[in-house]
Amino acid sequence: MVSKFRGKYTPEFRDTAVREVTDKSRPIADVARELGLVEQTLRNWVAAHRERHGGDTQELTVSERAKLKALEKEVRELRMENEFLGKATAFFAKKSQ
Fold first, then answer.
1. Burial class of 17 by CB neighbour count within 10 A (0 to 12, 13 to 18, 19+)
2. Residues whose CB falls within 8 Å of the CB of residue 14, separated by 6 or more in sequence, listed in order
3. What is the pLDDT of residues 10-68, one digit of tens each?
4. Percentages (nearest 5) of helix, strand, coil residues in the chain
5. In terms of pTM, does the model score above 0.70?
6. DSSP for 43-62?
7. How many CB atoms lie within 10 A of CB 85?
8. Which of 68, 56, 54, 64 is nearest to 24 (CA)?
């Protein structure tokens, strides 16, 4: 059965989806689910991208992927703390005037 949506994705959409996988090292299944794509479709796009751009970039190992995920979590937490501290500073600066 052929999908009626075949070929209806813009090149920009495809590039964005592929970059989520290649640049951010996210699993294809997660990105496909998030964007409402069939997993194999995204897998094909990623494979074509890697073929076009010389698949010389190596996949991350499991330990590298785990470390990257931990670091990304730490960055998110630090950004939230920084945002909170900025708001607290603004609050106390306003209150002291």
1. buried
2. 45
3. 999 999 999 998 888 789 999 999 999 999 999 999 999 988 887 656 677 888 888 98
4. 70, 0, 30
5. no
6. HHHHHHHHHHTTTTSPPPPH
7. 10
8. 68
